[in-house]
Design brief:
11 strands; disordered C terminus; Immunoglobulin-like; 2 helices; 45% strand; 6-stranded mixed beta sheet; disordered N terminus; mainly beta; 132 residues
Amino acid sequence: MGLGRIRHAVVALSMLSALGSAGCKKEGVFFRDMLPRSGKPSGGEEVRILGSGFRALGGLEVRIGAKVATEVGIADDETIVFRTPESREADQGHPIDVFILTNEGRSYVLRGAFQYRRGQTDTPGSELQRRL
């Protein structure tokens, strides 16, 4: 498929935390927030993107920086859910763009919306210790 045949729209949001209730709306899709906005470098944590109009997006791929998220789905019209991938060491400690790519060739960029915590390592039993 040639590039001329791909319908491509990009939405760039600057720091979702600064958006508050203003968010960003493009083509009937509204991005309001992302929770949580940070995670451990080993990945595997559930993240929710909040807004509206998500059912119209169809099939999705979510990327945090260059890494593809897993278990991506649209929970309802107002929530996209995914699990974070393992981070690259270079991505730790500073804001990273989150990309939402649709099967129809549309893409949305949430600028600086996620951050991997620097230097946090997981050791066996650490999750249990945090719960106690």
